[in-house]
Amino acid sequence: MNKYLSMLLLGVTALVAVNAAHAGAIDDAVKRGTLKVGMDPTYMPFEMTNKRGEIIGFEVDILKAMAKAMGVKLEMVSTGYDGIIPALMTDKFDMIGSGMTLTQERNLRLNFSEPFIVVGQTLLIRKDLEGTITSYKDLNTADYRITSKLGTTGEMVAKKLISKAKYHGYDNEQEAVLDVVNGKADAFIYDAPYNVVAVNKVGNGKLVFLDKPFTYEPLAFGLKKGDYDSINFINNFLHQIHEDGTYDRIHDKWFKDSAWLKDME
Fold first, then answer.
1. How far is CA 71 from CA 28, 200, 242, in A?
2. Which residues does 172 contact at the CB level (< 8 Å), separation at least 6?
3. Are residues 151 and 88 located together in one domain of the fold?
4. Quick one: pLDDT at residue 109?
């Protein structure tokens, strides 16, 4: 009996040691003193680079508040969006914070926090198409050329819902928008918060913003599968900032005030 009890205790001790060694990204960040977050800083107003080369934005400010709550520094690791999930899997950073939509396909590969905001896909169209194109359905013919950023839900939606149109994607949003501005494409498909800024900042009076979202897209933080301790911390943090006014203050700074635009190139 003592032999079996000893073996059982040894097994429990080993299990505890394994769990301690794999406590999760948040615990690792606290021990390291730095929270490393992968992001592609091209998504206005969530994460973007200002004229001084600093990464700023709505999601960045939420992550700064999270790092402060953890008592650590925030390190933003600039990563191309199409390679951001593989980079997480190879430990280039602790979590993804890059305006990522929680899709079922991605959820098979990642754990996600609760959403910190919900957005939807909208359209920027050529000004001369105003009245002709009133929704994404009107674009779904071989007569039109559409664009978006590669690796995003904009691309997924374009290929799923507007599959008959000709599609060409770009590595960043601005290149794709300029394709429409310059008449090389008819429409740009992307999240509403980006398009509401891009229509004026990049559009040069040549674009029309069809602002009614036609998809439901919750944005959330992505972590490796099985990291439930980190998900628990992040979800509780999000609940806290929603209740204490921090979230509203950050949200209003980026979505109700346009002062930050002066800081952009």
1. 13, 39, 20
2. 42, 149
3. no
4. 97
Domain of residue 183, residue span:
121-210
Phi, psi of 208 (to 5 degrees): -120, 135
Tokens of 207: 């674009």
Q: How far apart are CA 210 and CA 257, in angstroms?
A: 21
Distance CA(220)–CA(111), nearest Å, equals 10
* pLDDT(15) > 70: no
Q: Domain containing 162 — which CATH number?
A: 3.40.190.10
Is the predicted pLDDT of residue 96 greater than 50, yes or no?
yes
What pLDDT, in 10s, does the model give residues 51-70?
999 999 999 999 999 999 99
Q: How many domains does the chain have?
A: 2
Token couple for 108: 């098979």
Q: Look up the pTM and report it.
A: 0.82
Give pLDDT tens digits for 150-206.
999 999 999 999 999 999 999 999 999 999 999 999 999 999 999 989 998 899 899
Query: Is residue 17 included in any domain, yes or no?
Result: no
- Give SS3 for 168: coil
Cα distance between residue 102 and residue 110, in whole Å:
9
pLDDT at 40 > cutoff 60: yes
Q: How far is residue 128's CA from residue 143's CA, in Å, rounded to a whole number?
A: 15
Residue type, 71: G
Is residue 104 classed exposed, middle or buried when 0-12, 13-18 and 19+ CB atoms within 10 A define those classes? exposed
Specify the pLDDT at position 257: 86
CB 191 within 8 A of CB 119: yes
